[in-house]
């Protein structure tokens, strides 16, 4: 994968912007999108993510395992930047190293009162810019 | 469907916010997300949408026909509001009434120099708020 895109993905994913989403799908091709709050890209191909709500996203990931994160920065409707990070679920931890690591991050946020149900562990399969449109 | 959510969907979809996305999927459950610029919710259950780029989204819609729009307003990282509109592709016009209608809208935007390839016609199947998280 392109090193520049990896660096940008790390920066934008790890900032935990309020505009970060994860799109997933069930076996009948029903697509869902959810705002995701707490995640960390821990190396070039791994993202760990706190699951406290997101029931439908969780069910979809258990069914098909695939998704795409979008971090979209719009600067109040003026300009558009961001990244698309395509992922596959590798693990779903309810305890362990990654669970503890994402719980520490969760505990430092306004979501600290939510029970951490799962730590999703994703393999990054592809990274794309926000738009491929050529003028 | 809930009338309040329908009204909110119309308002937010029809504003054509820069942060509007459409998530779709292919037959192998590979999910994609694309920023979508020109669309109009013309009644309680119909959205028409200009396709000039979005090649992968177009291919996905032809394969599985399902998707979800998200309009997410973040007020520069302070607050979060928006709507999720779940859709199914009903028609894909390269001419006709809806094609002409969305072309008129496209022509009034900064994207007017792009060739309008398709007008996607979607049936709205479900509308949800951005988050279902209960505190």
Task: Describe this protein's structure.
Two copies of one chain form a homodimer. Chain A has a seven-stranded antiparallel sheet. Chain A has helices spanning 3-14, 55-63, 97-107; strands at 20-25, 31-35, 39-43, 46-51, 66-73, 81-93, 118-129. Chain A is globular. The first copy, chain A, has one domain (3-128): Pnp Oxidase, Chain A. With 135 residues, the first copy, chain A, is α+β, with helices and mostly antiparallel strands. In chain A, β3 and β4 form a beta hairpin. Chain A is built from three helices and seven strands. At the A-B interface, β1, β2 and β5 of A face β1, β2 and β5 of B. Chains A, B: This is Pyridoxamine 5'-phosphate oxidase putative domain-containing protein. Chains A, B: It comes from Candidatus Syntrophocurvum alkaliphilum. Chains A, B: InterPro entries: Split_barrel_FMN-bd.
Overview features:
135 residues, homodimer, 3 helices, Pnp Oxidase, Chain A
The spatial strand order of the largest sheet of chain A comes to 2-1-5-6-7-4-3
Which consecutive residue ranges of chain A, at least 5 long each, have pLDDT under 50? none
Kindly identify the CATH topology of chain A. Answer: Pnp Oxidase, Chain A
Structural class of chain A: alpha+beta
CATH architecture of chain A: Roll
What series of H and E elements makes up the topology of chain A?
A: HEEEEHEEHE
How many E strands of chain A?
7
Q: Average pLDDT across residues of chain A?
A: 94
The separation of the N and C termini of chain A measures 25 Å
Shape annotation of chain A: globular
